Structures are given as C-alpha cells and as structure tokens.
Amino acid sequence: MGNNSNFESRKPPVATTGILGWCRQHLFSNWINSFVTLLVIYFLYQLIPWFLDWSVFSADFWINYNGELIVDRTFCSRVADPEGDHGACWAIIIVRFYQFMYGFYPSEQVWRVNLTYILLVVALLPLLIEKIPGRKHLIKFTIAFPIIAFILLYGGFGFQIIPTNKWGGLLVTLVLGVFGIAIAFPLGILLALGRRSKLPVISMFCTLFIEFIRGVPLITLLFFGMVMLPLFLPEGLNLDGLVRVLVAVTLFQAAYMAEVIRGGLQAIPRGQYEAAQSVGLSYWQMNRKIILPQAIRISIPSIVNTSIGLFKDTTLVIIIGLLDLLGIGRGALADATWMGLSNEVYVFVALVFFIFTFSMSRYSLYLEKKLKTGINMGAD
Amino acid sequence: MSEDSIILLQNVNKWFGDFQVLKDVNLEVKKRERIVVCGPSGSGKSTMIRCINRLEEHQEGKIVVDGIELTGNLKNIDSVRKEVGMVFQQFNLFPHLSVKENITLAPIWVKKMPKAEAEELAMKQLEIVKIPEQANKYPGQLSGGQQQRVAIARSLAMNPNIMLFDEPTSALDPEMIKEVLDVMVDLAEGGMTMIVVTHEMGFAKTVADRMVFMDEGKIVEEASPDKFFNNPESDRTKLFLSQILHQ
Q1: How is A200-259 classified by DSSP, letter by letter?
Q2: A32: domain range?
Q3: A87 in a domain, yes or no?
Q4: Which of B57, B105, B164 should one mutate to test binding to chain A, selecting the residue with the greatest count of A CBs within 10 A?
Q5: Are residues A157 and A176 in the same domain?
Q6: CB distance B105–A281 less than 8 Å?
Q7: Which of A368, B50, B71, B129 shows a CA-CA span of 20 to 30 A to A19?
C-alpha cells in the first residue's frame, strides 16, 4: 500500500451539484432541451390552474352558487346558470357515494363490507411489511382471509345472505381485483413451473392452457364464464354470477402471471439449481427456498404491471351486466336526475382507479429499491 | 468392489447429444482417499464428478456411491446427495440468503434440524473455513475466496462422507487461491474422501493419494503423484504436464 495522501478525493466542481447544477444538466443542457422545458412549463401553467379551478375553486359540492342544497342536476350551478363561470358539480358523487362504494348492498349490513376492508388491510400487512412483529401469525390470518371475507360479504354462519347481484361499485371492483390477483399469483407460479417441467404431459398441459387463455380476449373469457361455464358444471350446481366472472378473471390473470414468472425463472443461473440439488433439497424445497424467491424478485415490475392491468380490466364486467365502479357511474349518468354530468363521474372513477393503481406502482418501486439496496445480488 | 471402496464407476459412458463425453470410465475410490483429476478442458473431468452426485445422468455403466447404486430411482439419488458434498467453480451461493442462512438451509430443511442447532453448526463450519465474522453478510458482499469458503462450509454442514470439488479455484483472483486451498488441505488432513478437479499442481503434490489424468472422455493415466509428475507413462500426460508446468 502506497501513501494515500496524494490521492485524497476532492469535492466535485460546484457547477455540477446542487439545484442549479441539476437544472443546468437536466433541463437546459442545450437549446432543444431548454425549448422543451419552457414549452412544458407553459402547458403546465395553463393546465393546472384551469383544472384546480374547475375541480375545486369554482366547483359545487353540497350547495350551488345560490346556496341551495343540490338534489338533482337542475340545481347544479353549471346547469342552472350556464352563462356563469362554474366548475364541476360533485353533488352527483356525494349523493350517490354509497352506491359508488357498495352498490345496492343493504345499508344496515354495510358494516360487514367496511369490516372486510379493515381486515383486508390487516391481511396485507405481513405481505407489505417484512419486519412486522408477529408476522408468522399474521400470515396465517392472511391465508384464512379469503374465507373470512367470503362469509362476511356473502353471509352464512348466522349472517344474513346478501346475494352478489346486490353488490356493486368499488366493492365489486375490489373483490374482482384483489381475489383475481391473489388467486392468480400462486396459480401462475404453478403454471410457470409446470411449463418448465421435465414431464411432457404436465409441460404440454400448462403450455396449452397458457397459450389458449392468453390468446383469447378477456371479454371472450367473461362471456365464456357467464354462458358456457354452467354447461360444464354438474346439474343442480348453479354458480353465482360474480363467482363465474371471478373464475374467468383469475384464469386470465394466472396465464399472464405464469409467463411473467417464467421470465424470472429463466434468469436464474443453472448453478443455483445444481447447488440446491447438491445439498439435498427436494424439487419443491429447491423452488420454494432458492429459485422462486429470486425469480419473483426479478419479476416484481412485471408482476405489478400485469396486476395493474387486471385491476383496470375488471371494468369489462360491465359488458355482462355486473355493476362495478364504472358500471355504477354509467348507471348514475343514465338516471334522468343526474344526466349530463359525465365529466364529474368519469373524473371521479378515474381518480379512484388511479389511487389504487398508483399505490401499487409506488409499492413495487419501494420493493425494487429495498431489494436492490438490501441485497447485492451480483458479485462485484 | 473391495471392502473399503466408497465410490465405484464401472464402464461409464455418457453422451451430450451425439457427442460422447465419457468413454468407458472406470474408477474406484477408497474411503479417506484423495483423488486429484486433471486434464485439458473438454476432457470430461467435470462431467465425471457431476455424475457421482447425479447432477449429470450417465447412460451406460454402473456408478455405486457408498453402497447405493445410482439409477433412475429418486430415493437413491436423494440418499447419495446427502452423502456427497459438492463445491463448484462459480461458488453458486444463494445470493438472496445471508452467509449463515446459506449454510443452515439444508440442515433445517433436509435434515429437519432445529434452527438454533443449525445456526450453531453453521458457526462451527464458518470457524473451520476461518470466516465466522462474515456470518450475517450476503454473498455479494464477500470476495471470491470468502464466497468459495462459505460454499465449502455449506457442503460440510450436511456432514458428507465424500466431497467433490469442481475446479474450486479457477474463478478466483490469484491472491485468493491460497486461502481456499488451505481450507481444502485442512479438510484432507481431517480424513475426508475427496475428488478434486483442479489444475493446482502444488495442491495435488501435497494432498493427492492418486492422480487421474483424463483426455477426450477417457481416463488416460492413474498414478501416485510421485510417479505421475516425475515419470508419467503416456505421451499425452507428458505433453499436458510440460504445458501446465511451464506456465
């Protein structure tokens, strides 16, 4: 080792650090870049104040510009006073908020839905936070959650039965999204492993299944679940409409999930399999402990990507007559009392979807960052 | 098969597609014997030792390890793998697990050892390979030499009767080769049955009971280190030795 003092590191030049340095490097590095920066600033300057004014400052909430309580569309400022400068009329959302959230679920039983939501958060905790105390016990609850949720939402065991045709709004969207993703994930893992299996029968079955489901639009599968699934079931067994849709959505998602996870599996070097086998792990132990944790880690961005896709695709159930969040919105617009307020409804529905999908996206970024910093996967 | 032999390969043949990688390989290894296998690349050395714990399947001939014949029988393969530890050229540590978890994994899951006991065992193995202070780091944070020593500790934790080494120092920087070889010498002195594929001739001279030289899928020469290095029989061996000893 030589004398280090001649090689002490200096601080970087000032012009490349700090806010000014950042702006110069990223926003104004050359004239095209500067022009685009200014153009974008101009558009944002035009757009943001306009949207804030429309959605908040000039908007109606409970009362209109005359101070009257809004009970139908004619009370909305922008309908009652078309000449005036009025923004959105959120009363449609406020008045119909219950429907947007729960559909036609009986209001004296709605605590069951709210309780399910709270329990859903509890069930998600051990999955989202690795270091939570008592994770092992919470995981048991997470595994039991679908059954608890079913009993709470649907009924039985002393609870009044609420048929699924009374469910609607965000409730249906979340049931399809959460259950679709949660059931499709393990199914996708099995399909991905199956497709790579050395046993030709299993691998062929999984490949056929994945290719068929992926090759067909989700709407087709929904119709299939609605119309054809009952024909395959034994007589007398009448599956609930929502369950049939859930089956279709889950199979669809499982096929995509399988391909995403297969991509991750292909990135695992052969040496990992060999090392796992040479210490005596069985096929399932090897996959559970060594291969899948790494493969899933690699596939997180794609897993979240397809999950977000599915969450939004649940709106397609409108085609077969289920009233999800968007369906309730369209129902409200079809009602003569609130006709014409489509901007408000679609903005609200978009916002609710955005809240969920954006959280999913943020969570995936957080996971990627944590896994990258916590564990250095490469040897460098 | 004599009383004290622990590995037996009889007329073993293997093909990759149409290419024959092993040609009538016969090898008998006694308990506590240390074999060093060398030969040019592509000569089938790695394939041969990988057949011994069934990472590769042989197509013809007979392989018996510790009295268990390797066939399609999965139970046999499982029991052989519990007897045989293996160390790879690329270390193949599990990057998502800490050093300690890398070592405890198999004892906990394969041998159903309680976690506390397995951790104690892991620390003992890390002492043997002289890096107990790295227990809670991840493989990516270690140097190549340290990673390879963890890999050795991971194999030893399963308490194998036989250790296979597949070019354990070939992926290491020159500075780190010695620390790995030292651990292997300790292991040899402890009486472990070892088959080592390596080009470290210094190691071979100090440790090996027998040298095995392979070329084009065949065992060309088998001899004591003394005879092998000083008075080899075949011309192929002479050529090989003159090339690697003049580096």
Answers
A1: HHHHHHHHHHHHHHHTS-HHHHHHIIIIIHHHHSPTT----HHHHHHHHHHHHHHHHHHH
A2: 16-57
A3: no
A4: B105
A5: no
A6: yes
A7: A368
Q: Of B94, B106, B147, which is closest to A280 when you measure between CB atoms?
A: B106
Q: pLDDT tens string for chain B (247 positions)?
A: 566 889 999 999 999 999 999 999 999 999 999 999 999 988 999 999 999 999 999 999 999 999 889 888 888 888 899 899 999 999 999 999 999 999 999 999 999 999 999 999 999 999 999 999 999 999 999 999 999 999 999 999 999 999 999 999 998 988 889 999 999 999 999 989 999 999 899 999 999 999 999 999 999 999 999 999 999 999 999 999 988 876 5
Instruction: Specify which residues B212 forms β-bridges with.
Output: B37, B222
Of the three residues A167, A187, A208, the one that is the final residue of a domain is A167
pLDDT tens for chain A, 380 residues long, are 445 556 777 777 666 667 777 888 878 888 888 899 899 999 999 999 888 888 888 878 887 777 777 888 888 888 777 787 888 888 888 888 898 899 888 888 889 989 999 999 988 888 887 777 888 888 888 888 888 888 888 888 888 888 888 888 899 999 999 999 989 999 999 999 999 998 999 999 999 999 999 999 988 888 888 887 777 777 666 777 888 888 889 999 999 999 999 999 999 999 999 999 999 999 999 999 999 999 988 888 899 999 999 999 899 888 888 888 998 888 888 888 888 888 888 999 999 999 999 999 998 888 888 776 545 444 33
CATH number of the domain bearing residue A368:
1.10.3720.10
Which among A280, A289, A378 has the least Cβ separation from residue B81? Answer: A280
What is the enclosing helix (H) or strand (E) of B13? strand B5-16
Phi, psi torsion values for B35, nearest 5 degrees: -110, 135
Do A296 and A179 share a structural domain? Answer: yes
Contacts of B96 in chain A (CB under 8 A): 293-294, 297, 375, 377
A282: which chain B residues are within 8 Å (Cβ-Cβ)?
A: 78, 110
Distance in Å, alpha carbon of B164 to nearest chain A alpha carbon: 10
Query: Which of chain A's residues have a Cβ under 8 Å away from the Cβ of B151?
Result: 275
In terms of domains, do A115 and A174 share one? Answer: no
Are residues A311 and A291 part of one domain? yes
Chain A residues in contact with chain B using a Cβ-Cβ cutoff of 8 Å: 269, 271-272, 274-282, 285, 289-290, 293-294, 297, 375-380
Distance CA(A40)–CA(B207), nearest Å, equals: 72
CB contact under 8 A, A279 and B85: yes
ipTM, two decimals, is 0.93
The pTM for the full model equals 0.84
- The two tokens of residue B198 are 């390596």
Q: Which residues of A touch B154 (CB under 8 A)?
A: 275, 279
Which DSSP letter does residue A1 get? Answer: -
Residue A6 to residues A3, A10, A11, B202, Cα–Cα distance (Å)? 7, 11, 15, 40
Residues A145 and A180 in one domain: no
Residue A79 lies in a domain: no
- Asked whether residue A94 is domain-assigned, the answer is no
- Which residues are CB-contacts of A218 (< 8 A; sequence separation ≥ 6)? A248, A249, A252, A313, A316
Q: Which two tokens stand for residue A187?
A: 């199914």
Count of other CB atoms within 10 angstroms of residue B175: 10
Determine whether the interchain pair B140/A378 forms a contact, defined as Cβ–Cβ distance below 8 Å.
Answer: yes
A104 domain residue, yes or no: no
Shared-domain flag, residues A260 and A309: yes
Count of structural domains, chain A:
3
